[in-house]
Amino acid sequence: MATFENFYQDLLEFIKKYEQQNIPLKIEKDLDNDIIKIFGEKITSLGRAKNGLNDVTELAYATAEHHPYWNLLYNCSEIANCVLDKWRDSLTAEDLSDIDWALKKLNQSLEKIKIKNPSDF
Asked: What confidence tens digit (pLDDT) does each residue in 2-24 have?
């Protein structure tokens, strides 16, 4: 029976062909969670951060109001997206206003959580 681990081993064999042609690839794996990431030679730290944040943002959108912490995650990811989008530029007044709004929403969400779980604080 084929498993994700088998797939990963087959993928490594396949990737060897490209590495022999001097095409550098970086592979990260988390086989416990069935995740494999392949990065090309032009990947940057900023590109990786944006890619990883996409996963966080997707979780924030997908959970919506079904989880008590969704609003914390959502607003944090919105702030991080804004910062990463402007990493090589300056934050505009509109960006700063959006960040300020998200921070207020974060604080409101945190206060709601504190009210629901007062013994935790």
From this structure: 899 999 999 999 999 988 899 88
Check whether residue 22 and residue 49 sit in a common domain.
no
Query: Of 120, 34, 109, which Cα lies nearest the Cα of 79?
Result: 109
- The residues near 8 (Cβ < 8 Å, ≥ 6 apart) are 29, 31, 36
The closest of 42, 10, 39, 41 to 27, measured between CA atoms, is 39
Strands (E), 21-93: 26-30, 35-39
Range of the domain at 32: 4-39
pLDDT band per the 50, 70, 90 thresholds, residue 62: confident
Q: Are residues 61 and 91 in the same domain?
A: yes
Q: Closest Cα to residue 18, out of 38, 45, 35?
A: 38
Rounded to 10 degrees, the C-alpha dihedral 82/28/58/50 comes to 10
Dihedral of the alpha carbons of 61, 64, 70, 72, in degrees to the nearest 10: 70
Distance, in Å, from the CA atom of 121 to the CA atom of 95, rounded to the nearest integer, reads 32
